Amino acid sequence: MVPASLEIPVSGHRFSSVVPAKVTGGNKDFELTNMDLAMKLHYIKGVYFFQSEAAQGLSVHDLKVPMFECLEHYYTVSGRIRRSETGRPFIKCNDGGVRIIEARCNQTVDEWLATARDKDHSLDHMLAYDQVLGPDLGFSPLAFVQFTWFECGGISVGLSWAHVLGDAFSASEFLNAWAQIMAEEQLSSKVNDRVLKSEFPAFVSGKPFSLKKVDPVGDRWITANDSRTVTHSFHITGKQLHHYMTDKISDFEIISAIIWQSMSKVRIDLGPKTVTICSNNRLVRGDELAAQPVNGMTLSTVKADFCVSKVEIAELAKLIADRKVPENGLIEDLLSGDEEKSDFIVYGANLTFVNLEGADLYGLQLKGLKPVFVNYMINGVGDEGTCLIVPSNEKDGGNGKIVTMTLPEDQIEKLKSILENDWNISN
Amino acid sequence: MPPTLPDFSNSVNLKYVKLGYHYLVDHFLTLTLTPVMIGIVVEIVRLGPDELLNMWNSVHFDLIQLLCSSFLLVFIATVYFMSKPRCIYLVDYACYKPPVTCRVPFATFMEHSRLILSNNPKSVEFQMRILERSGLGEETCLPPAIHYIPPKPTMEAARGEAEVVIFSAMDSLFEKTGLKPKDIDILIVNCSLFSPTPSLSAMVINKYKLRSNIKSFNLSGMGCSAGLISIDLARDLLQVHPNSNAVVVSTEIITPNYYQGKERAMLLPNCLFRMGGAAILLSNRRSERRRAKYRLVHVVRTHKGADDKAYRCVFEEEDREGKVGINLSKDLMAIAGEALKSNITTIGPLVLPGSEQLLFLLTLIGRKIFNPKWKPYIPDFKMAFEHFCIHAGGRAVIDELQKNLQLSAEHVEASRMTLHRFGNTSSSSLWYEMNYIESKGRMKKGDRVWQIAFGSGFKCNSAVWKCNRTIKTPTGGPWDDCIDRYPVHIPEVVKL
């Protein structure tokens, strides 16, 4: 008799593929921008939980059919990575498709979320496939969708998305489009040409700090970490943030400041002096269908010349808001030049804060019902760690946030105690 | 023409000589009888009506002789009309169109292969090379159970596929013809590799609540040529049962037959066989004469099973690991050629015009008596048929037949395009090809169609149809949404 704690909760995996409904044809090749290639070693995971009312009567066939039409629009997601004669990767739109996984969980949705609150959502990764592109690069799907059925009849939808395709906003838009097709709503087709070159001129010349070069990874696009990293999620309610709210500072900056200061107390070397901020200037409106997925985020760095652990939060937040230096232009220059063939990481090169505040995560609806909980994570993160700030669902009284940290194992426990003691932030 | 006269074949004059020769021989009877008739008419006119009346009166008839003669005439006429075979009409047919959710692009097929056969890179390479040269397109379909990695072929899934394919085709047939289920007198279902109990024909009877005195048959194991065998059976039954409707359902169920091992000869069918099915309504009722699309003229069946090599060339067996698959031998093309020759020898005299037959006979006599080195004369079947439907078994089969029968690219276009769009759908592929020709607006009244199918055994079956009425487009068939894109150029090798 296997003790409940050792039983694997998610099992019965069945793999299949979904392809675009119409032939993409013409052997379309999709060029990858330098920003895409800078992000290639990272993977985004999103898990959406639905109660049984939303999933009632939905078979796996009902869930797959809208995906065919969705992939007709998002034909790059169905493609595969190939290398051109110069060795530069591009996407061949050969209709390879998206991998679909069906699985079962032996808990109910409420049980899972309750356990997750205790264990900081560290098991959520079981609900989305652990994706790595390669070693068979030309035959690795760029996206996986996992449907997990729970004992109560509820369902979770887990998206695994290679960052080389696009940012988390694109990933969320892709899934929202799928749900819209399932609800038989018309997708407004706004076709944009992808922005091939970054629009940001270089203000400063020199090397970008937000990137870190890693050893060549060849055809297996994941970086090795010095120590094991784990992912934990925290809830911050709107009330807690309200204390520090001022006009010019957003929730994101406040939370980033809190985390930065806490990390400086956790680390022996007094914490990082430079952090990377990843934000997105696109406003996502509900009725717009995005064009092909794109890496449209702005990467900036913030340097602190003072001791981070000793200042007021408001001041630190102001520093982040005002003094961040966009580095997209520098990144573009770096990757167009000598370092074209090198491999880099962005998330975890420095302590990275990713702002997903504007993402319409709760816009993914099954049968008109919103998910009860949505969580996003990033895989392939470097040793400095990453912090994702994601909107919470409205039950929390509006403006709560979920903060998902990916850090080396030994730092996570200390961070948890600091957050609990100093800020009253817990799971 | 014998090779002793070399340069003439390029001469335009020879072309006219050939045309003259064909016209002379084909219309021989007309050409001989016409002068005779003219002679008689001239003679009668010359004699004048009085002379004729005298001739008539001089022949003495008494009552008994008159009665006996007329009785004899009536008797002979009755025997003639009774023994004439009934006309079999093909009222209409419907082909199954798989949904887009079953679509399998090359990239997906190869990726799944790599994952399933991860320990056998050589087998994966082999499949890739086959697929590149197969002549299939990116829109062929496999049933849902085969989309899983690894495939999940349960009996339930196989039945599910059979239901979807057969019932869709039948619903479409009912809609097109206005046929009521209760009016079906004969039902023949052929599916080679899936034969559950109760049979697929029982499944159809159950679904549509057909009559309890229906004559139903289920043909299994007879390979890709079973479609024409079913047509032959229906024809024979319709000779015995007057005023009847026969429905023939031809399909191949892929789900239980996907080979899961690594033997290369057995992986080949996985690359080529795809989902498909057709339902055909045949009738001997005179009331269908007007609206029927085709009339069945001949069915010729040739079986080479007596030869051991032919018998074993398409063989279902277990591989070394116990996995069941269909083994295709390397002599397949040679045996197919032999079977085709046999079939042509039988069908030739039935369909070829007298001129071609005479030429063939003369060359045959010449080879036997004068000089065995003379090239055998290949009759020009293009004179006997307007359209050809060659079973889309694979690119090699179509190439081989095109060469042997000296057909142009347009003649084999229907077969090649069906292979591209739908893959090898086994016994139903002939009906997709027929529909292609109709959808292109090429089928006119009086056109003759030759359907040729090869199958395990080794069999070569042919059917000859004559078009009853010009068929308008669109036909309401599986080509409606894509016919404008065809014909496509299919490259020798598609780079994956």
TrEMBL record, chain B:
Entry annotation: catalytic residues: 224, 303, 387, 391, 420, 424
InterPro entries recorded: 3-ktacl-CoA_syn (IPR012392), ACP_syn_III_C (IPR013747), FAE1_typ3_polyketide_synth (IPR013601), Thiolase-like (IPR016039)
Catalytic activity: a very-long-chain acyl-CoA + malonyl-CoA + H(+) = a very-long-chain 3-oxoacyl-CoA + CO2 + CoA
Pfam family name, one: FAE1_CUT1_RppA
Segments forming domain Beta-ketoacyl-[acyl-carrier-protein] synthase III C-terminal: 386-466
Pathway involvement of the protein, from the record: Lipid metabolism; fatty acid biosynthesis
Main localization of the protein described in the UniProt heading: membrane
Membrane spanning stretches: 20-42, 63-82
Keyword field: Acyltransferase, Membrane, Transferase, Transmembrane, Transmembrane helix
GO molecular function: fatty acid elongase activity
Enzyme Commission number(s) of this protein: 2.3.1.-
Coiled-coil regions listed in the entry: none
One term under GO cellular component: membrane
UniProt record, GO biological process: fatty acid biosynthetic process
Localization (cell): Membrane
Domain FAE: 80-368
Entry similarity comment: Belongs to the thiolase-like superfamily. Chalcone/stilbene synthases family.
Protein name: 3-ketoacyl-CoA synthase
Native source organism of the sequence: Hibiscus syriacus
